Amino acid sequence: MPAAYPLPTNVSPATVANTASLLRIIALALISGAAIASRLFAVINFESIIHEFDPWFNFRATKVLASEGFYAFYNWFDASAWYPLGRVVGGTVYPGLMATSSVFYNILHALNLPVDIRNICVLLAPGFSALTAWATYMFTKEMKDASAGLLAAAFIGIVPGYISRSVAGSYDNEAIAIFLLMFTFFCWIKALKLGSALFGTVAAVFYFYMVAAWGGYVFITNMIPLHALVLILMGRFTSRLYVAYSSWYAIGTLASMQVPFVGFQPVRTSEHMVALGVFGLLQIVAFAQLIRSYLSSKQFQNLLFYSVVTTGILGTFVFVGLTYKGWIAPWTGRFYSLWDTGYAKKYIPIIASVSEHQPTAWPSFFMDLQLLIFLFPAGVILCFRELRDEHVFVIIYAVMASYFAGVMVRLMLTLTPCVCVASAVAFSSLLDTYIDPAEPDVPRNPQNGGNTTLEDVVAAATANTTKPGARSAPKGIFGLDTRMIIIFNAFGMLAFFVFHCTWVTSNAYSSPSVVLASSNPDGSQHIIDDYREAYYWLRQNTPETAVVMSWWDYGYQIAGMADRPTLVDNNTWNNTHIATVGKAMASPEEIAYPILRKHDVDYVLIIFGGLIGYSGDDINKFLWMVRIAQGVWPDEIQEPNYFTPQGEYRIDERASNAMKNSLMYKMTYHRFAELFGGSGQAVDRVRNQQVPKVGPTLDYLDEAFTSENWIVRIYQVKKEDDLGRDLKSANAFSQGKKRKRSKPVSKRRAIV
Amino acid sequence: MSRRATPFVLLGLLFSALPATSHSFENTAIVRTVDLGGSLVHVTTTFAAKSLEQDASVYTIALGEEEVDRTSWLDVKVKGQPDDLKMSIEYDPQSQMNLLDVTLPKALSLNSTITIVLETIQTHATWAWPEAAAQGDGQALKYKTDLLVPSPYKTHVQRTKLKSQSPNIISYTTPKHLDAFIQEGGPVTKSGATVTYGPYHGIPPSTAEDFLTSIQQSVVVHYSYDYPVLEVLKLRRAAEISHWGANLNIQDEISLHNAGPTLKGHFSRLEHQTQSYFKRPAAHVLPSLTLHLPAGIRNMYYYDLIGNVSTSHLRVPPSAKKATRAQYSVFEMKPRYPLMGGWNYSFTLGWDSPLENSASWDSAGGKYTVEIPIMTPIVGAVVNDAEVKVILPEGATDVKFAVPFPTVSNTLSTHITYLDTTGRPALTFKYKNLTDKHALSIYVSYRVPLSAHLKKPIAVAAGFFSLFTFALFARRIDLTISKKGKNVS
């Protein structure tokens, strides 16, 4: 066999195996290091802080769990959320994340390492991303080999699609869920390959962990049965499949029902029915196999036909009957929105109002995956080439996840591991082919003594094309240069991939969004810290029972940082309550005031970005408030009223009356024009519109606090007037305005 | 211990004094000067005394009950001499006075004179009036004091000067029924920023029965004050000594309160920005604060309950040799929001400093001595409650400490932190009403045996060793039930 380059021959196989194993360990360690390090941009650029919105709740819950123990957490009724309803936190939360951090916290404290709970929460996601890299390595190793596994680990370690949900400080369920997802899949593949009940059980245990950690566990609940079903349909039923699936399903389902938030859902909701159905089907198939071994084939065929028809009809009737009786819950709205992207906008605006529930834009695929997006199909095709049981899994995974990632931005996250695995398979096949020194045997030309002339090559080529298969021309790669070109190219792509990932991570995904950054004239970083300024003011200078009303986006942050009761928060379980807040914000003061008073609201908090051009403010979200309120009170709030007759969304002189009179508008632009000296130059820098010269006046609320850059404005709700007047006339009286009367009353003397 | 500073807190000094004899001295003149401030009021009283008997060695100063309650710091000196005089205090129920017996440096002969200076700092002595002020309003305070300086001796002439920092004195009490003591002029005069009561002549001893009822009266002065009135409600300082890191970490948890007039109405950012734009900040608003920290510090941090506060600057000079110790780091901190009247702000401040700057090693006794400052003074602020916790290295024995002034309480506890096995001894000192005069140091000396120094590396090594041993055995134990059980399909 000729070789493109010589390989050492005097190395014993044991040495090669040992060296390879050592190199693998070092590579995995370095990959873990890179995965952790690339997620620390947020900590280095800003500080060790919890990001965004949901993580603030998780952080708060973790503190409760770590300080008061698991049972107190289980029974935790949070009276300060959803005032005055409260929230049963223990029963409405996936406790996996909080339990993980508090286990770490307790272990470290038991070892006399008193690490702050905040730092554990901040660094949990990077830590678990290293574990994800390892789990992906194990998974890919089952698909191809260890080198593909290392590539997959490196990909998942730095790919932005996963980093977006796991930077330091992004303390959300996804932080640990992706590791659990990959490891459960690995155990499932392992169990299927070996027919091992042990690995099936391990898969079930990690499935339970996943159920406790993330609502996305439904993805596993449907992926594994789907895989099993496809295998049965492909005629690949084996006792290994039976053992693996039965042990996973039985233990996993029982375990998952222990999570209070899940409860009896695995046997009562439609999302879980596939798993149950496939479990039943497997029993039938296994039973049929058993029977077949005792019967003749003719008898068996008849039996099979009738039993399949009967079971099919019976099964459908039972399913429909149970759904009709209400024992099996029908699909939820969130589920429908997965199939019909317009569904949410029509029926559940609260889901549609979240940006991460929007369909994914094409550029974001490239931004999140870069070169992997075109290696991915190649990897899936390579899976077809061998098509072992586990390759079927990757193919199904790829199809399902690609669809879901196209429907919802946040489901990009479930696609990413599959993309990394498939791309790694493709990339490593490429490298295997071109690094392999073996060259095909070339039939030597006796006349030329081994020197191939041009004519020979041309002749060989033409012969090959004109008469394919007539002469078996050697296929393969010749020489070192061809190899070098391809390999150089491949590594170049990898290098660009690394640059891209670093750039995207540092620029797009590492902002805590609680703290904003801008730069000073001298180029140094300037921190805009308005949120915390206002939240801390609330925490330090208002009574502890003061109820704060804000749009639901800020509920968790207010609870976490200001430690005050809120009306609504990011756990959007009560649409009516949110609509009430929306109605109060969208109504004129006179209508909003009774709503505020009935809900004991002391302070109203709004976000205003018009001064410094911060676009994520409440006026931009205002239409969603209107829409959600309209869903509940269609007679009182109508979206078209908030547009100008020309259909524009304006806040300047031409704004519609409903807009100008709404509480939100008044609070936002209260005294804003005066900041510019009332000269009519007050420009809202988000909307790029001039605000009216004479700003709105407030009669029922008082400005209580405004942060440095005016981003957060807090208003205090006035108490009822002591003399029983309505606040508008009381205000007019104290400003010295006379009430217009038809008859002048000046009969003061007559009274005496 | 430095002998220079032995000031004195009135609490805790209880041993009995020599009986005061009201005939051993007479005061030729008493001058009291009150520097009107915000949280702190500095009072200097000068007694010019003449001895009326041979070998008079104890001079008695009388202090009213209210005055004792307010006074947080007090010292007595002979004028022009640096040393503090020894003293003891006792309550005299008959005259309702606390009598402070001062032992003079040497006994006086008949008719010789001496000038004694009493310096006190009063806390919580002023109050805002009006009690609430709008954002643009000025700030005015009231201060109330006794008109006459009590003394168990007869006084020839005395006067009281109330000095304000701003010339705007809004009102002051004109005392009545003093004709017997006035020789010329009115009972009170005001010139510029100073209100002078007196001179009053021939004041009888305050032990006389009718002194409190008919002669003594209180006067109130109402003045404007241009700086925010700050109170530290609680200061918790933890000082952790590490020999392995050659490091002294000091961490302060401070809750600051603006005790000036409470904000009337609401805070308007617009008004605040206008004021700072035209450089006319309101007197009762604290927009930022400058603190002096030790030189040569590193890893300084400033955060509060919800994270780092990014609006601060620190300038650190290198840690200097003992000769040029006067250098300090300047820390300009800006609270998250301007502190209006009645608002609170709590924060944590901490830094590391090289241990050699504050520790010394006595090779003869084998002991370390470490100097721990009790507080970092915030200018013009009173610290209502202070708790200083000194955490010594693990295994420190033979712990002794010297405090510059008596504590309210001190306790010894165990503190467990990173890589500790048995925990570190920790001393906790509690104080009340500290002022910038109290920014002195506690000295702690202790012995650390070599075995205690080695505890940490041994503990860490043992931890890793047991982990590796476990891994060693875990990899070699075969737990499979049957060898051929695998790969059966």
From TrEMBL, chain A:
It is a multi-pass membrane protein. It catalyses: a di-trans,poly-cis-dolichyl diphosphooligosaccharide + L-asparaginyl-[protein] = N(4)-(oligosaccharide-(1->4)-N-acetyl-beta-D-glucosaminyl-(1->4)-N-acetyl-beta-D-glucosaminyl)-L-asparaginyl-[protein] + a di-trans,poly-cis-dolichyl diphosphate + H(+). It is an enzyme of class 2 (transferase). The chain crosses the membrane at residues 20-44, 88-108, 120-140, 146-163, 175-191, 241-261, 273-291, 303-324, 365-384, 391-408, 485-505. Keywords: Endoplasmic reticulum, Glycoprotein, Glycosyltransferase, Magnesium, Manganese, Membrane, Metal-binding, Transferase, Transmembrane, Transmembrane helix. Residues 731-752 are annotated as: Disordered. It comes from the Eukaryota. The keyword Cell membrane does not apply. Pathway: Protein modification; protein glycosylation. Its cofactor is Mn(2+); Mg(2+). Its main location: endoplasmic reticulum. It is found in: Endoplasmic reticulum membrane. Coiled coil: none annotated. GO terms for cellular component: oligosaccharyltransferase complex. It holds the Pfam family STT3-PglB_core. Residues 736-752 have a biased composition (Basic residues). Its EC number is 2.4.99.18. Residues 547-595 form the STT3/PglB/AglB core domain. Catalytic subunit of the oligosaccharyl transferase (OST) complex that catalyzes the initial transfer of a defined glycan (Glc(3)Man(9)GlcNAc(2) in eukaryotes) from the lipid carrier dolichol-pyrophosphate to an asparagine residue within an Asn-X-Ser/Thr consensus motif in nascent polypeptide chains, the first step in protein N-glycosylation. N-glycosylation occurs cotranslationally and the complex associates with the Sec61 complex at the channel-forming translocon complex that mediates protein translocation across the endoplasmic reticulum (ER). PANTHER family: DOLICHYL-DIPHOSPHOOLIGOSACCHARIDE--PROTEIN GLYCOSYLTRANSFERASE SUBUNIT, DOLICHYL-DIPHOSPHOOLIGOSACCHARIDE--PROTEIN GLYCOSYLTRANSFERASE SUBUNIT STT3B. Belongs to the STT3 family. This is Dolichyl-diphosphooligosaccharide--protein glycosyltransferase subunit STT3. It comes from Guyanagaster necrorhizus.
UniProtKB/TrEMBL annotation, chain B:
Pathway: Protein modification; protein glycosylation. GO terms for cellular component: oligosaccharyltransferase complex. The lineage of its organism: Eukaryota, Fungi, Dikarya, Basidiomycota, Agaricomycotina. Component of the oligosaccharyltransferase (OST) complex. The chain crosses the membrane at residues 457-474. Residues 1-24 form the signal peptide. One of its GO terms (molecular function) is transferase activity. The keyword Transmembrane applies. GO terms for biological process: protein N-linked glycosylation via asparagine. It is found in: Endoplasmic reticulum membrane. It holds the Pfam family Ribophorin_I. The keyword Transmembrane applies. Subunit of the oligosaccharyl transferase (OST) complex that catalyzes the initial transfer of a defined glycan (Glc(3)Man(9)GlcNAc(2) in eukaryotes) from the lipid carrier dolichol-pyrophosphate to an asparagine residue within an Asn-X-Ser/Thr consensus motif in nascent polypeptide chains, the first step in protein N-glycosylation. N-glycosylation occurs cotranslationally and the complex associates with the Sec61 complex at the channel-forming translocon complex that mediates protein translocation across the endoplasmic reticulum (ER). All subunits are required for a maximal enzyme activity. It is a single-pass type I membrane protein. It comes from Guyanagaster necrorhizus. This is Dolichyl-diphosphooligosaccharide--protein glycosyltransferase subunit 1. Keywords: Endoplasmic reticulum, Membrane, Signal, Transferase, Transmembrane, Transmembrane helix. Belongs to the OST1 family.
